[in-house]
Amino acid sequence: xxxxxxxxxxxxxxxxxxxxERYKMGRYAARSAWxxxxxxxxxxxxxxxxxxxxxxxxxxxAFDDPQLIRWQADLIRxxxxxxxxxxxxxxxxxxxxxxxxxDALARGLCYLRFAGNPWSETEYSRSHGxxxxxxxxxxxxxGAPRAFGFIDHDLFPTEDTDPFAPLSQAPVWGHVLDRGxxxxxxxxxxxxxx
Length: 194
Known about the structure:
This protein is an alpha/beta fold. It has helices at 10-14, 17-36, 45-51, 66-79, 94-106, 124-143; strands at residues 56-62, 84-89, 110-113, 147-152, 172-179, 182-193. It has 6 helices and 6 strands, in the order H-H-H-E-H-E-H-E-H-E-E-E.
């Protein structure tokens, strides 16, 4: 999101910084909108969406590390509570993606591979955010789970837990990060009631 117009200095206005930033944001938004409408490169997003109606959904965005997903999947199965665990694979390496898919299917997990992320080799935060947006548009919105959340692929439950318990106190839960006049929920772990 671009800065408010009153946040720019006179020098920045003279250098057309507000115009340049808005152009870049518009270009990024258009590119992202196109990518979130793409089909999954592997798996059936519509089938996953049909299977999560009124259930709890936990989504992990994988990236090039099958071992992390194996650890997380096993710990969520043994330590977590009843929820659908979905892996949205954002890997840039096809061999790693094939290994993650094979491990997911061997464990009976839901697996989708996000197709062609333009940011995966250069801007990891944008890449991760675009994969999350894709999951929102293609799985969460059409599937209407009772609650959903995102968890980074390198976070592991080490004791019995109900990751959705904080939602009994509020409709959205996560770690708030402040950036001056703006704030956001950390994308590594956040939950929301549908």
